[in-house]
Fold this protein.
Amino acid sequence: MMPLDTGTKIAICFLFALVIGALVVPLLPLPNPATFSLEHALTPPNWIASPVLGTDAQGRDIAARVLWGARVSLTVGLLGSLVALLVGLPWGAVAGYRGGRIDRWMMRFCDGLESVPLVVVVLFLLTLLQEYRIEMDKVGIERIHLFYFAVGALFWLPTARVARAEALRLRKTAFVEAAQSLGASTPSILFRHVLPHLLATVLVMLTLTLPRVMLMEAFLSFLGLGVEAPAVSWGTLARDGLATLNPLVDCWWILAAPGAALALTLLAFQCLSDGVQKRLNSREQ
Amino acid sequence: MNAFLRRLGSWALTILAVHAVAFLLVRSTRGGPFDSERSLSPEVREALEAHYHLDQSILHQYIEALRGLLRGNLGPSMHYRDLGVWEILSAGIPVSLGLGLGGILVAVVLGVTSGLGSARRPSGKIDTITRWTSSLVMGIPNFILAGLGVAYFSFYLGWLPSAGSEQATHFILPSLALGLPFAGQLSRLVRAEGLKILAEDSIRAARSRGLPELHILRFHVLPRTLVPVAAFLGPATAGMLTGSLVIEQIFALPGIGTHFVQAALNRDYTLALGATVLYTALLGAATWAADIWVSRLDPRIET
């Protein structure tokens, strides 16, 4: 087994620290992320003492807000990717395993979706759903829940393609043929033989989909169509940061802090997926 | 010719499908255009609904909308009462196209030159700088890049305007913010392709004939790296289209993206529908153009 390279190790440590930080942020000795204090507004980063990363135009602590935002951004990333996997994986597995006409039609459907600007369409759907907010509030659905499905709907296509390719390969393997000749039904072969073997692929897909979903969340929140106040995510923080920017007062840190958090996380996932892929490849050889 | 017609057909079919689904969704969503503001007397309401064909069956309305679409008339906007959707959007097309072309130009010019430069001497100085910069611009989301660009170049140095669309200088920062992440990806692609080509015997032969290095890069390597570049541009336009939504917003460019986001925030469904259909048409046309370029560069690949 190939040892992990340094980059991947650093990436794993960073992501681990981020998750822990997001989990224990209520216990950390940080100021409340929602407390206004206008006399401390726009304090530049202090780096060692509070406010570590400075404050925004309302005097709220940026470091606290970035860590609280990590909770929302990471949750959306994780749940959104799970939705993408839950749709894409079975779709690809069935298409690849059944093959023939079913495969052709299922994949043609994917091709069709790919020629549509999906982000725009999903934004359009989210807009229409705003009309039903009161009803949704009654049954306890918030906009953020719709969001998981929306981003899931955006990213299941690559997962489906990869799953299909794997299923096509598995279909020809001896153990699947053995199961077929013993008379196992298609669903049982799919669930007991094909899907478990897709797990490694799932792992790689997850490390690739998660950062994309987080980026999409930030993107939509940035436009004002995603996470809503009082909840904070890195997208809404970046939106605040950009709104505060002006030629008179220097306040780059309000934008740079969530931007750096987002960029570092995306980079860490990039390193992680490279590392995981290398390792899986080396195991196969 | 046959391939052209087939492509045209699928392009038109995609637009029609998106339009039909979006139309049905808008019509079945509760809340008509005359629900929100002042309550209207029944007579006025009836007259308005008759004017916009809202009193007829949904099939009839759809046929009406389809006829409008074919004539380039996307109906009235629900928010800007005096303007038609097409009037609003067509004013935004030149701005969005300018931004999109600027982004593609940035991506291709910077991506190809830096990729070739770093392929020439792997792990040399240029290569190291290029690889670090490209992973940096690929990692930072474009709206953060845009914001920091505004903070530095517009507010701190005061070199470039931060918003507006009157002059060409207004498009420099937006095009950079839109194109740089794609330039980073292209740079990697061109570097990998260039390394492969530079290791070939034909290049060694060219060098042994005493051709200058720049000549080799320009006439022997560059043309062959353009095939993956063109193939990359097709999918990249979809990403640029998404990116343009935020970039237009940040730099206050009155393009299609700004109108679309405003429509989403204003619940202007007809304008959002029109923008969605227009985006579908533009994306289809852009990927088509990229495919044509690929098949021009490499005739073995058919469109």
